[in-house]
C-alpha cells in the first residue's frame, strides 16, 4: 500500500511538472507574439 501511495504521489508530481511546463511554454509563446 505504501508503494502504491508513493507511486501515485510521484505520478501526480510528474503531472504537475508537465502541466506547469506546458503553461510556461504557452506563456512564452504569447510573449513572443506580443513582441
Task: Please provide a written account of the structure.
The structure is a single chain. With 35 residues, the chain is an all-alpha fold. 94% of the residues lie in helices and 0% in strands. The protein has one helix at 2-34. The longest helix is centred in the middle third of the chain and has 33 residues, at 2-34. The chain is rod-shaped. The mean pLDDT is 86.
- The secondary structure category is mainly alpha
Low-confidence stretches: none
Radius of gyration, CA atoms, in whole angstroms = 15 Å
The helicity comes to over 70%
The fraction of residues in strands falls at under 5%
Q: What is the average of the pLDDT values?
A: 86
* Sheet having the most strands: none
What string, H for helix and E for strand, traces the elements in order? Answer: H
Count of beta strands: 0
- Tell me the number of helical segments per DSSP (H or I, 4 or more residues long): 1
Broad shape: rod-shaped
Distance between the termini: 51 Å
Biased composition (Basic residues): 24-35
Region (Disordered): 1-35
Brief summary:
The protein contains 1 helix and no strands. By secondary structure, it is mainly α. The protein starts with a helix and ends with a helix.
Which SSEs are present, and which pair or pack?
Elements: H1 2-34
Q: What key phrases describe this protein's structure?
A:
single chain, 35 residues, mainly alpha, 1 helix, 94% helix
Amino acid at each position: 500500500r505504501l508503494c502504491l501511495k508513493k507511486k501515485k504521489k510521484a505520478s501526480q508530481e510528474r503531472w504537475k511538472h508537465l502541466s506547469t511546463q506546458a503553461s510556461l511554454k504557452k506563456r512564452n509563446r504569447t510573449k513572443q507574439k506580443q513582441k
